[in-house]
Amino acid sequence: MSGHSKWASIKHKKSAVDAKRGKIFTKIIREIGVAARVGGGDPDANPRLRAALLKAKLANMPKDNIDRAIKKGTGELEGAEYSELTYEAYGPGGVAILVEVLTDNRNRTAAEIRHALARAGGNLGESGSVSYLFKRKGLIVYDASEYTEDAILEAALEGGAEDVAKTDGEIEVITEPDDFEAVLEALEGNEFQHLSAEITMIADAQVQVPEDKLAQVLRLIDVLEDHDDVQNVSTNLDIPEDFSLDE
């Protein structure tokens, strides 16, 4: 999991930047709206909405924004209707990439995603071409300088976690999606403060690429994640632990 842990660390730092720009609010609002449209506006009966509200909480989103997003999703307020799409793609070096989007214009988004991939030397794949390499999991990340792996492991396993691993200065807790909330609550109950917590797609195994390709892939992912319609980007890229964002 070392490659993914490094990727989780990078995403956490990027999310902090996005939060400052306000971009993350737009994406969370869309997710809340779609979750409410699909499963209703009651978070107690809608696990997807609960997960979206957790993201909103972590991003310190104002309650008024959250309430409006839910009402737009349930139809109480007028709002755009978004479609959920997942693009399967290959990046430089053959790296697998999943791009999850919420869009109100499928044609525009498809063209822009295709263009971004082509500019970076990547391409869209057929449906099912790379998705089989990933599984949806809960991921909670902690600072290894603040807590010991044993302490996190004990609380996580009591909560029902699947795995705990320490690498690159961080401790990551992996859960099944249905167990995510229970594990997070168990860890919070022991006063562990996480760096990030999300339900995401995690690759079963990572692949390594030459250093020049690594930089290309990371630039591509940065472009994709900066797109307003993109909710999440997952990859099976193995990032060396000594890699720095400043390189």
In angstroms, what is the radius of gyration? Answer: 18 Å
Sequence of secondary-structure elements: HHHHEEHEEHEEHEHE
Into how many domains do the coordinates divide? Answer: 3
- Mean of all residue-level pLDDT scores: 88
Which spans of ≥5 residues are poorly predicted at pLDDT below 50?
none
CATH topology title of the largest domain: Alpha-Beta Plaits
Strand order of the largest sheet: 3-1-2-8
- Classify the helix fraction into a percent range: 40-55%
In short:
The protein is α+β, with helices and mostly antiparallel strands and 247 residues long.
Question: What would you say this structure looks like, in words?
Answer:
The chain has 247 residues and is α+β, with helices and mostly antiparallel strands. It folds into three domains: 2-74, Orthogonal Bundle (Arc Repressor Mutant, subunit A); 85-130 and 205-235, Alpha-Beta Plaits (2-Layer Sandwich), CATH 3.30.70.980; 133-203, Alpha-Beta Plaits (2-Layer Sandwich), CATH 3.30.70.980. It is 45% helix and 21% strand. The chain contains eight helices and eight strands; from the N terminus they run H-H-H-H-E-E-H-E-E-H-E-E-H-E-H-E. The protein has a four-stranded antiparallel sheet with strand order 3-1-2-8. It has a four-stranded antiparallel sheet with strand order 5-6-4-7, sandwiched between helices. A hairpin with a 2-residue loop joins strand 5 (163-167) and strand 6. Helix 2 crosses helix 4 (63-74) and helix 6 (149-159) crosses helix 7 (180-189). The longest helix has 20 residues, at 2-21. It starts with a helix and ends in a 12-residue tail after the last strand. 37% of the residues are buried. The model has no long low-confidence stretch (mean pLDDT 88).
